[in-house]
Prior knowledge:
Layout: H1 6-15, E1 26-30, H2 35-46, E2 50-52, E3 55-60, E4 63-72, E5 76-79, H3 90-112, E6 124-128, H4 136-146, E7 152-159, H5 162-171, E8 174-179, H6 199-217
Parallel strand pairs: 1-2, 1-6, 6-7, 7-8
Antiparallel strand pairs: 3-4, 4-5
Amino acid sequence: MQFLDRSDAGRTLARELERYRNRRDAIVLALPRGGVPVGYEVADSLNLPLDVFIVRKLGFPGHEEYAMGAIASGGIRVMNPDVSAMAVPQPSIEAVVEREERELERRERLYRGERPPVALAGRVVILVDDGLATGSTMRAAALAAKQQNPARIVIAVPVGAAETCEQLRREFDEVVCVLTPAAFRAVGLWYEDFAQTSDDEVHALLAAAWASQEARAS
């Protein structure tokens, strides 16, 4: 099975999340960029609000592929407990944080304008991306969301590596992976169209979702 594109994947994923339809305490948080077209369809299908949750990995200086932590929307910072054992100088850590905060703020302005981050306390938070390979970005997002004391964290993706999905199930309340193929290899292989999602597309989808939410509320 392959999804036609991220929108098709989102509609399929929504069917696995029907129990959250019309839940007043639930919100869909999409990880940009590729998670936004998926999250848009999930939120639209289930009549739930959509927002974007921006996460930036904090890479070890000189070994950026390894995460020493992450920062996320709302001023959240989560650090890997192993950082102290790695003897990374505090000024080096702060330099990485400062750089990634600038990029996070740039994306916040680009995607959200002056719209403030949503409060997550007491809510069912459905975190959506277009797939899970290692799961490092999603894990960072879920840990960051957890800092805000939600009632429940649901990780939801159209496709993911089986081992990654199982590992996240041991860490968080619920994980929904529509496909967990044995020969996973890469997220993009499970889409006919996996073209990169542009900033303009993210902005347009968020604007459409927020306009729809405001119209329903009025």
